[in-house]
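Lecture 7, part 2: worked example. A protein chain together with zinc ion.
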Amino acid sequence: MKFGITSLALMAAFLFSPLSLADRGPAIKDYPAKQVADNVYVIHGPLGTPNPENQGFMNNPAFVITNDGIAVIDPGSSVQTGEMLLRVIAKISKKPVIAVFNTHIHGDHWLGNQAIRTAYPDVPIYGHPNMIALIEAGEGRNWVNLMERLTKGKTMGTGVTGPNKAANNGDVFKYGGITFKVHHYGKAHTTSDIMIEVPEYAVTFLGDNVLNKRVPRLDDGDILGNIEAITRIMETGSKTYVPGHGPSGDARVPQAFQRYLEILYTTVKKYYGEGLSDFEMKDQVASALNAYAGWSGFDEQLGKHISLAYLQIEAADF
Ligand SMILES: [Zn+2]
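Predicted complex, written out as structure tokens:
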């Protein structure tokens, strides 16, 4: 029965083997890193939503070079994005990665943790406790599946590598003489947002509490909470703000997005007061937000943003 045993062994090997190379999506091409402040670099990702062409890559992975090594913020949407980030870092510095920060639960920001963890098994990965709880509840797996579906398998090989260290509002982490101060102001873009201030370089990483040239999915957010979070973070007086998507810049970056949310909320509130339903006010709200009509995702998201604002205004009114 030698043949039978061999067949069984082969079948077992097939069933239980880790992913073969054929089950792994292709590498992502290297994108340029832009220096936005002393020792601070950002790879500004494409502005679209995840698709086979961008391979799911769409966020702004960033890194800060300290005396002892590199701190990474949001290594991207897949193991392939994380590997690309490591290649780009290596072109600029030979230092190891010594810390990772994840700004919130949305998988386009943190699924790349896997590549960093593989290269640096002991690296601490920080995230808000609500993010850690959401991953324990299955949100990480949902994001892995969503990315695979939207990219038609280009992110395959990516698994769930979440934060292993909690980061709360007011926490201060020091790496290589550089300060990483955590800001969290309740439900904003999600329940799990942290923004990272690096006072030595007057830089703040905003996560998706602020986007630039692109409108977000707000489904998990609170519009007034998001407006408030932007007011609070601007009290840092940072010189450079790095949004979750789109170009970095000065205070005008968070101001412009805050203005989007304010116009959305106040315009919907006005027509809500006049008794219009959410779909009846769409043209008026679109024209009030005309300055943002060129932002990526505007047409797709506007109806949803109005509905969300409407629900939150109705709830506040109740
Ligand atoms: Zn997000």
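The mean pLDDT is 94. The chain has one domain: 22-253. Keep this in mind for problem set question 3.
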